[in-house]
């Protein structure tokens, strides 16, 4: 049986957990509640409606911004998946001069503020007179997507048996064959999980995209920001709810794939 002291401590833990969840998720619940508000002004409730969700499907600016965001996210993640995986494998399997220094520099985008990455990328592009466009956003997003994918793949690599690759080489496989047929299939859950995480981060990014986008190349977060400056409307609430659900679903899938890969 639990002692009185342990029961009291457990009660405080439960209360603290409930308060923490309320603090974290109550704003999201309020946002979702007002996304069904018939009133065009979020402050007053005038009845339930799904019109704001239907309205999003006919909004050309929103659809264009969504198309740009998906193009940027998919392109950045596709490039980063290759480079991030190779970087993680190289750091885990090979020794070379300056390895520790390179490792520290490679993971810097994880801790550097987004504003610093945005300004540095903009200065770099201006120095070489590279015109801003949708592809400059992709290049900027690749910088931090590589770091996130490499981090997830590296955590997967620590749980793998390196002797499997050695056995493949002893049996006559070339290093490329050993990588493609032995190591890569084992890394695939980590690669997919890292790609999904990077996809969500790229899709939600506003700061870096706003510094590196050209004229007429709005992403979805940029479009949302341009609209809320005149007040938050229910259609933006509806769009935000959809983005939250999309991010949650992708994060859940990524974590499920990662956990399943570790158990196997």
TrEMBL record:
| SUPFAM superfamilies reported for this sequence | MetI-like (SSF161098)
Tell me, what's a Pfam family for it? BPD_transp_1
Q: Where does the protein principally reside?
A: membrane
Keywords, A to Z, come to: Cell membrane, Membrane, Transmembrane, Transmembrane helix, Transport
Q: How does it sit in the membrane?
A: Multi-pass membrane protein
The record's CDD domains line, in alphabetical order, gives:
TM_PBP2
InterPro entries cross-referenced by the UniProt entry: Bact_Polyamine_Transport (IPR051789), MetI-like (IPR000515), MetI-like_sf (IPR035906)
| GO terms of biological process kind | transmembrane transport
Lineage, top-rank taxon, reads Bacteria
Per the record, its GO cellular-component terms are: plasma membrane
Which stretches are transmembrane?
A: 12-36, 70-92, 104-126, 132-153, 236-254
Describe the location of the ABC transmembrane type-1 domain by residue ranges.
66-254
Q: Is DNA-binding set as a keyword in this record?
A: no
* Ranges in coiled-coil conformation: none
According to its UniProt record, where is this protein located? Cell membrane
UniProt similarity note: Belongs to the binding-protein-dependent transport system permease family. CysTW subfamily.
State the PANTHER family in the record: PUTRESCINE TRANSPORT SYSTEM PERMEASE PROTEIN POTI
- Output this protein's name: Binding-protein-dependent transport systems inner membrane component
The organism's taxonomic lineage, starting at the top = Bacteria, Bacillati, Cyanobacteriota, Cyanophyceae, Nostocales
